Amino acid sequence: MRKPRKSYRHRSIGRHHLRPETLMMSYGYDPRLSEGSVKCPIFQTSTFTFKTAEEGKAFFELAYGLREKRPAEDPGLIYSRLNNPDLEILEERLALWDKAESGLVFCSGMAAIATTLLSFLSPGDVIVHSEPVYGGTEFLVHNILPRFGIKRVGFLAGSDAKAVDGAVREGRKLGRVGVIFVETPANPTNDLVDLRQCDLAAEGLARSQGHRPLVVVDNTFLGPLWQQPLDHGADLVLYSLTKYVGGHSDVIAGGCLGAEEHISAVRGMRTILGTISDPHTGWLLMRSLETLKLRMTSAMKNARYVAEFLADHPKVDKVHYLGFLDDDDPQFEVYRRQCLSPGSTFSFQVFGGEAEAFRLLNRLKLVKLAVSLGGTESLAEHPGSMTHSDVPPDEQITLGITPALVRLSVGIEHPEDVIADLEQALKAV
Ligand SMILES: *Cc1c(COP(=O)(O)O)cnc(C)c1O
For the whole model, what pTM was predicted? Predict the structure, then answer.
């Protein structure tokens, strides 16, 4: 690729450091390479011409890792299953939020998770993971990875260091622990996992098994604005970009960010599995990134009003909102250390059971009854029978997924409009 001039990668003006929200409009893109177009065009192409056969040879040598990169040599564009300008610029911009060295985008969050896990786990390895995790991830670790000889041990989100250490010890008995996988806050209960504990556990394993497992964090719920796991000992951060980053409920995509050392392994796996995103989706996500901070900030503020309304409502039993953690709750210290805000997705329990929850959901007029989260519009769903329906009933209860639980993703509408809708719907409970 003809790389943009250095000025398009400037992250400061003199000594003044530029913030990610500022850089989302320009970083990594040189208009002079595209007829002066202010916005990055959609490079809707499957393949790229080489100037010379020698150049094509050099590009392939780097892409297939046949030799080390020469100083100042940039990998060239070859074919859109390997790389594409829209996706490369998007990856550079995405990495800025998490202060990551490198990033990768995928055709879905699940593609990001599966490709990353397959990059670091081999037959005989063990994955230690928090519970509950996203339904697709749960299916992957319970049903698909075992077919390739990869075992799993889970620990409950919201539990203390002993639970993490216990799971790691059990994992060691089964084989080499290759990955510690964490989803925090957990979906749908917002229980937190202490990332420092996971980092310490990984360090302990580095000594006992001679290999540090990677700490991999699915940061879809609070990231990238309200939680940056790389600052707290994580090695890789994963996203369903479908949610807050895409933010308009109109694309499916995923991301993986971290040090180039690890990312290069995932990049190689992505090339072969073919799980990269496409130019048009990349372009849409760049557009989304320009308003990411505005959207996440607005939704976060709205969610506080909505959570407070629900907490005061006589038909609501419990609200699992991070902003309501008591300071004597052991989770509070974890929250203060690793989260910057409670975000805007949380669940609440009405008095009663499934019937009461359904009556509420069926009466909603403005809030859409749909799974997913992080969009501009508010969404509500019933975890017990929808997103978490494949979790057996007794396990659902252990995980805090009661029949009366409703999950809400608060959007950027006027908060009083969302509250008015919930208020009329709660009358049916
Ligand atoms: C949605 C989601 C995923 C899966 O992402 P897709 O883009 O739907 O493949 C993974 N993890 C979490 C926490 C999610 O919410």
Answer: 0.96
